Amino acid sequence: MSWGTRRRNTIITIFFLILAIPISYFLFNIYYTPANCFDNKENSNEQGVDCGGSCELLCKELVLSPVVLWSRFFEVSPGVYNVVALIENQNPDAGIPNIQYTFNLYDKDNVILYERKGTAYMRPKEVIPIIENTLFTNKLSAERLSFKFDNEFTFKKDTPREPIIIIKDERLSRTDTTPRIDAIIQNTDLLPIDDVTVVVIVYDKEDNAIAVSSTAIERVLKNQEVPVLFTWPKPFSEEVSRIEIIPLYDTRQ
Known about the structure:
By secondary structure, the protein is mainly β.
């Protein structure tokens, strides 16, 4: 091969190399998809398919499902019931954003008298009551309650609920006639908090729940103190040992 031919071949090779670099870069950008948390693959630093590592979703195999500590129903008046389930999220850094659940009240023949569905949200390391008020049974007596979760849980990275709403001045009165509980909630945060639900659980000497109720507050302003009131139309079935008032709110808003 002559020197001229080699020179020509070298120039052609360099030309194609120069041309191939931008073409390769262009094709790479079109067809290459970097690892992400939505590609249905276990890649990057994930601990499962699109979960764990840097992903917001946590792998179900590595977290604990919420535990139902107990569930109860309480007759407020003939044929009107309140129901509650106390549930616990034992995970230190996993929240459950959409818990779907069902309460069923049954009669003595195991026939469903009333069904109530709802949704709840749990922060890490949290024990919360799920409560539903005024379940009507057409004056039929309820004999049994069931509570169940309806969906497969999705766990997301989260932090425990900040204790920014505090309870003050709890007072129980009129226990022999129409029991009444008064209290004050205060927002200690720098911002207002919307959609606050305040739940009260009344316990007997055996520490069993004997009554529940809840009330909703649309907004609590910064440093605002809001009175809350719970009443029952008839005396409690047992002597009261203690009351627990639990504010539920979402600081993600």
